[in-house]
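Record format v2
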Amino acid sequence: MSTTRVMERFRYSQDTAIEKPFNWEKLTRLLHYMKESGSLIVKAIVAMLITTAVRLIVPLIIGQWALDFALANEDYGLMLQLAVFALSLYIFSLFANRLRIKWTNEIGQNAIHALRKQLFNHIQGLSNRFFDNRSAGSILVRVVNDVNALQELFTNGIINMLMDMIMLISIVIILFTLSPPLALAVLIVLPIMFFISTKLRRNIRRSWQTVRIRQSKLNSHLNESIQGVRVTQSFSQEENNMAFFKGVNKENYDAWDEASKKSAVFRPFVEMANALGSAVLIWYGAYLVMTGSIGFGVLVSFAFFLGMFWEPISRLGQVYNQLLVAMASSERIFEFLDEEPNVKSKHDGNEATNLKGDIQFESVTFAYDESRKALNSISLSIPKGQTIALVGHTGSGKSTIANLISRYYDPTGGRIMLDGVDLKDYKLHRLREEVSTVLQDTFIFSGTIRENIRFGKPDATDEEVEQAATAIGANHFIEKLQNGYETEVEERGNVLSVGERQLLSFARTLLANPKIIILDEATASIDTETEVKIQQALKTLLHGRTSIMIAHRLSTIREADNIIVLEQGNVLENGNHEQLMKREGKYFDLVMSQFKALTV
Amino acid sequence: MQIFNALRQYYWPFRRYFLGSIFFLVFVTGFTVVYPIFLQLAIDEGIVNQNYDLIPILAIGFIIVMMFKGLAAFFHQYWGDVFGIKTVYQLRKGLYEKLQYLPFRYYDNARTGDLMSRLTADVEGFRFFLSFGFAQLFNFVMIIVFSLIVMFYYSPQLALITLFMMPILAITVQRFDKFVHPAFKEIRISMASLNTRVQENVSGMNTVKSLSKEEFEKDRFDEKNSHYRDRYLYTSGIWSKYFPVMEFIGNVAVVLLLAYGGYLAIYGTLTPGAFVAFFSLVWYIMGPLMNLGFIINTFSQSKASGERLLEVLNEPVDIKDDETAIDAGRLTGDVSFEDVSFYYPNEEKSALRNVSFQVNHGETIGLMGQTGAGKSSVTQLIARFYEATHGQVKIDGKSVQDYTIKTLRENIGFVLQEPFLFSSSIRDNISYGRPEAGLDEIIEAARRADAHEFIEALPNGYDTVLGERGMGLSGGQKQRISIARALLVNPSILILDDATSAVDMQTEVKIQKAFRELMKGRTTFIIAHRISSVQHADQIFVLENGKMKEQGKHNELLEEGGMYKRIYDIQYQDLQSIEKESIR
């Protein structure tokens, strides 16, 4: 393969903008999350001011008073007094420091906690449309990584930014108070330092951004190559993959090398800026001391303060970087938070407790998007307690009907009534409690079997859990497991077979005790004998409930009270098995084609 | 230390960058200590002794020295980084190669998340120590040595006082480290558990919604969210306790210097310049000393990281070409099992027990049986994804071990139950097994897999780039692409591992029609649950608990009246009753 072909072997989206331009609106929205901490912020700022003040006073004590007054006058008593004074300042600062660290972390963590909570809760309310278009991984990244990216900013960033700015301004003021001409001379380094920490830094920052983007491409590939390793090995593509990886690895290396070099170049500039300041200080400062315009303690104070300059400037640069990264993260977080659920719960919705389960479709139309009409003015009546089978090709509208009954989507036209009341007039969570979908791919949460069944009704007692399992017939395999109901299971684990998972999900649903059950019948990968067992459990589950099945197996379909044959969003025929067979229409053809598959 | 030794091949070739970096570090540290000396000279010689001529020399000299320091700092830092990133490059290369060849056995027990964290966090942890941690440790020792030398030169008594403060600081740092280390670990564990909670919630969102358990999920999440905050605050509590103390100890040294140094300066031998220089030197020492815990931490983390990397790197690739393996080109496709038994590693139950059969090239074989009966094991042994524990698996009369793995797998086309597609264009996904294939061949394969139509209907056709794991396609569509992928390599042996179960009945009928044509001239193994998928096979194997239970053609097995018949009855009772109805 040519090199370009090799590098196009895999393609990864690179929209991972690591930083965004600064935006006040977003920042104020972020700061909003700190408001909860209220008075803590004021206290933390006071503590911060104290520690900053101590850090500024001590160089003055040593520089000016110790040297110019105590040493120059050979007054050891004063020297001792100064030492004691410094010590008490330090003790004072010790406590202020402790409180500052404690409080700023509390503020930060409160904000992070609140933000994450809001984000997670908001996502719970979002509609299926939202989840349809996103992988689980991309949602996870926002709740975990993007929020974490704000952690530094919230905990230390903002308070430090304040502290550093106060520090810089105070130093400048102190220097000018001590000696205006020397301050003026020494401070020529200030613009140089700012130039270095902004202009040069920006250049460096961009190189690091390239590194991170390449890194994320490399990681995407690593992740995928691990998940797809079986495919790779069965097609013996190891070498071609290695060629691709070599390219990605090299790209990453080059970017990294470039960024390292730029960062290292930064160092001499910093040193020179510092050196220039010190040289000016030594030269001009000494001159001023000799001419008697300043005491030499002032010179020493200057030396100390000059040494303190670089740290806050450098840290401000860092905070600025943090801010830009935070902009990107917060943009992604806010995008989710601003997402409105398509399906909304009515505030004064019906909380009816005694639902019967009569469903009525009144010329219901639905389109997932403008180009794709899924249902075409459908009218149906499903009396309580009946079992309805939906039959048709993929894309005929079977799942859409099911989704509309659970109100995962709202109809684009017409309305759906439950016990004579529009679905939209019920409180959403109330409705969903009464309408359960039993899914094809049973999801197992990590935890014990008991916890997984109890998921259907979190306040169920142990007895209730076991009763549900027994009713479904899941107790047999559960009791055979080493730890019975307390056996730990997890999503990808192989403790449970496909059939056992299905039974678990039935038990879960039985415990939830809904009035209406929607069943997406499993077609996949269950061997026939297991399937028979499941059918029996299913009968128990459906007993006395309205059920809508998306069915594939003829045996299930045949037993339905009503079979609805769908094609391209229209109801083609409906009736029970006998009626439809007599009509010799689409249903008849469908049955016959399967029949042929057997006999040919 | 043996961990560093074991990983030697990945960094040792680049040692000159490391040595160069350390060499320049000596100068960086040395030049750092120069500043207090210049200050002292300026004060004592220049100002106190009124030797004004010295001042410009000092100022310019200082700039020159700092110029050298800047230069040295550049090389120290850059070469240190280069050392690290070159190592990372090699390490990643080694790891990736390893991962490509590790057998299925390894992946059966490996988790993607865990492997990813080794490949990213552990590689970084190891690099960080190489590039930065070690140099810092070295720097720490040198700055103390240099500073103490200068201090002792100026005033032994004061130097001793500073020296006296150091053990106190070191003990505090060590205690801090002892507490903060497990606390940090707990933060990480708490974060991981929060991560799992979100992951499960999002992956199981359908379940959550169908049972309307959003409020329950919110509570469960809040538990984790609060736990994380509490762990974090607990840690920052330790931080807030020790950090100010460490700073305070440094500050006490400053106070002592002021008291005792001031005494010496007034009554004794200490010059004012040396007095001032001392403060600078004390600050130089205290900085790194406070970082000592952090540096030692990077060391222990890099050790742990190195260990986890070694675990992957030392994992044996036990399925590899024998020295005498031959590159046989195209195989005919006769397959035989001779008394084959197979155990999955770490499992007591055998997956296959004394299985023997003979398949002639061009035959179609149906494999049936319950989940876990051993159907997949049969096909995986043919492709040598695992090694038979006992007995011989032969293709064209030779043991599979006699062929190179490449020969073997190029002759076998696999369609797995879960179609895995890569983030790439549809075209590249189909040609994954034969990257050099032309577009017409790709289209032909897609046609045969009944995929051409829907691909053409996509806005970018064959150039449509699929997202992560084929996002945007339905299960049936993904499966058809993966079938086209297997067809394009034109294998002598085709294995369909439950390949059509994800598509609905109607589509299955369509695909199967396509299959029938494809199977011509190839040995085909079909693993299925539906009788309709296997009834036309030349031989049907029914497996139970790893044993060959029944073997024969459709009609023969029906007559036998065993398990196959039972499955048949269940699957076709509906049709039989319909048949009766229509006769009536």
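The radius of gyration of chain B is 36 Å.
Chain B touches chain A through 167 residues (CB under 8 Å).
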